[in-house]
Design goal:
By secondary structure, the chain is α+β, with helices and mostly antiparallel strands. It has five helices and ten strands. The chain has a five-stranded mixed beta sheet with strand order 1-10-7-6-4, with helices on both faces. Strands 5-9-8 form a three-stranded antiparallel beta sheet. Strands 2-3 form a two-stranded antiparallel sheet.
């Protein structure tokens, strides 16, 4: 498989997975395919112009944000019960359509109690956020190839696992910073949170 091939979503979906707010397994599958398609379209144009994909151009810590944005847009497109939070950096990323408070705000929500936060990550655990939040978290684990040579033989980015769970604040570890530190304030999913996520796996690549 070359770097401009579109991966197939050919892993296993878990029919026993608990999905909130009317979200369906097929919605997630279509969102993954949507993300692959958009990424492929962008990369074809970039390779024609500069000979590199987004994977090579973007900073490694920025690429998962792009994937998360595409996944949220895909789920919002295909789900009949969820829509994208219209506020930039609002929480959570996906909002239930039937909540009156959200309707009144035209789905422009700074911090909501109901919905799903979506993250793309290469990490097998310890997924991070800015704050320890109570609510649903969905993580799309991916693999990216930036090393294979020649570059045309690099594998396309693909999702290898999807996990989700409703987390409590106790499922997060919070890392603050001292008065002289420039480190970004972060919260990480701890062992109890990772256990919940893995118990409710949604997709795994075969």
């Amino acid at each position: 498989m070359g770097w401009l091939d579109i991966p197939e979503v050919k892993g296993r979906f878990n029919p026993q997975a608990k999905l909130p707010y009317g979200l369906k397994l097929d919605d997630i599958k279509k969102a993954m395919e949507f993300t692959y398609g958009v990424l492929n379209t962008l990369n074809k144009a970039l390779i024609e112009k500069v000979g590199l994909r987004l994977e090579e151009i973007m900073r490694p810590n920025s690429f998962p944000d792009l994937l998360s944005t595409l996944l949220v847009a895909g789920i919002s497109t295909y789900s009949s019960t969820l829509t994208q939070n219209r506020k930039h950096d609002g929480y959570p990323d996906l909002l239930p359509l039937d909540i009156e408070e959200y309707k009144k705000e035209n789905y422009f929500v700074h911090h909501g109690k109901e919905g799903i936060e979506v993250k793309a990550s290469k990490q097998k655990s310890g997924w991070q956020g800015h704050n320890p939040e109570e609510g649903w978290l969905m993580v799309f684990r991916y693999e990216v190839d930036r090393e294979t040579a020649p570059k045309e033989k690099r594998s396309p980015t693909r999702f290898v696992e999807v996990l989700a769970a409703k987390l409590k604040k106790s499922d997060w570890s919070f890392s603050g910073r001292g008065p002289m530190s420039r480190r970004t304030i972060t919260a990480s999913v701890n062992k109890s949170g990772v256990k919940k996520m893995r118990q409710n796996w949604i997709y795994r690549e075969c």
